[in-house]
Amino acid sequence: MKNKFKYDLCIVGGLGRVGLPLGILFANKGLKVCLNDINTKHAELVKKGIMPFKEKGAQSLLKKSINNNKLDISLNYKCISDSKCIIITLGTPLDKRRNPEMKKFLKVINIIKKSLTKNQTIIVRSSVYPGTCKKILKIINKRNIAYCPERIKQGYSIKELEKLPQIISGFSKKAIDQASILFKKISPKIIYSTVSEAELIKFFTNAWRYIQFATANEFFMICQDLNIDFEKIRKMMIDNYPRAKNIPKAGFAAGPCLYKDTVQLNTFFKNNFFLGNSAIKINEGLPRYIVKKLSLKYNLKNKVVGILGMAFKANIDDSRNSLSYKLRKILKSRGSHVICSDEYINDKNFISKEKLINKSDIIIIGALHDIYKKINFRNKILVNIWDHNKNY
Ligand SMILES: NC(=O)c1ccc[n+]([C@@H]2O[C@H](COP(=O)([O-])OP(=O)(O)OC[C@H]3O[C@@H](n4cnc5c(N)ncnc54)[C@H](O)[C@@H]3O)[C@@H](O)[C@H]2O)c1
Fold first, then answer.
1. Which of 3, 76, 183, 375 is most exposed, with minimal Cβ within 10 Å?
2. What is the DSSP string of 140-157?
3. Ligand 1 atom closest to residue 36's alpha carbon, by position in its atom list
4. What is the pLDDT of residues 41-74, one digit of tens each?
């Protein structure tokens, strides 16, 4: 990509979970990339070639791209004027009332606007509330805007980006062409859609996955009430029976994407997304259900309850929207003394898994990191929703 710009691309929000692996991958394809962010802590680490979070396969590629002088970090917006393409990977969280928090996101768009020059393409990659791309178009007032949603599984971007087809949509042929040139460097297949279709593809994908988890979780609760092991049933259901093979294990389903996008879709559909609503109730209700079941058998007051795994899912270090924290809150309200441990999350209040196992009367697995699968819990009361979940 020969051009007058210093950078082939700049990623706004480039030190986040989506932006950083994406930037690393493009830099390793030979593009000159600038990561723009406001996170000074991440910037310090990344400049030294250190990954600020767990991301499979990213560490060595980060070092390589820094050594090859392909990856710069910028804490100001000057790099935007210097870039041919600008990819936006800013966070799009919910506010306290569970509504999409769009103000901050659009404020940054207004700031970026001031640094834009001619012949640039803006690629929105954040998961945005339907209609947001049109709002961006209105602010920027240039049609060179593409929407290319990120669809990776968190923690596995490096592997998945080169395997997954890329959805590309845009408001002009130029934007679509530029985004295609860019993503063809990393994606095996391009799928073209309209912007409105792409916004829904992203939300439907996450809501579908979230509903699948809710189905497994509701089956789990039915089994619990019947004193039957759901995991044993699931294994028999999927054994050589292709139509049931996609049913996931039961377990906490939350995090910054699945829950959030299902909530947003429900808001967009004026609270009439019935399956989504039920899935939210089921998945978010699982910690309370576990505590209720436990309290039928044990007096939880003054018991030491250990939560092993505080991340929102297995083998990552991200605690955003993790149900382990909700579980902790519910247990505390029942008078339990709650202790927590996680292999990958740094928190001065957490203790080692060995200490937690020793001290706890009851142990609940909150995130089933692989390392926990090998532990012998001896004669402790163990709640493992993912496995052997009969009659805890
Ligand atoms: N995490 C995932 O696996 C995943 C997967 C698919 C889609 N998404 C979507 O991608 C988007 C980003 O998610 P994420 O998990 O990477 O979030 P993140 O919070 O890890 O990353 C966002 C980054 O934006 C930076 N930022 C905030 N304000 C800024 C500003 N004013 N200027 C420059 N940078 C700023 C933050 O410091 C942070 O590094 C969200 O819309 C999310 O829903 C996430």
1. 76
2. H--S-EEE----PPTT-H
3. 33
4. 999 999 999 999 999 999 999 999 999 999 999 9
